Amino acid sequence: MKFLITFLAGAIAGAAAALMLAPKSGSELRAQMAEEAAKDRERARRGYETASQRTQESYEKVQQKMHLHGDEQVDVEVDVEVDEVLTDE
What we know:
The protein is an all-alpha fold. The protein contains 3 helices and no strands. 0% of the residues are buried.
């Protein structure tokens, strides 16, 4: 019986300590996660738009070179870095 009382007292003390030391409540944590997810969605949308725009520009550049040079082999330089697209603000 003494073991059971000690066990329950330890469980109650542990639960109380966990509640007092928890950095945020569940609703606060969910709100923070939703905010971060919204920021990530916006960042992904901007990255997609930037990549799409640069792809279109590169396509137009290739089309223009092909029009100017016909069947002749032409080197076309496309200068886009993946990290650059993802970090554009």
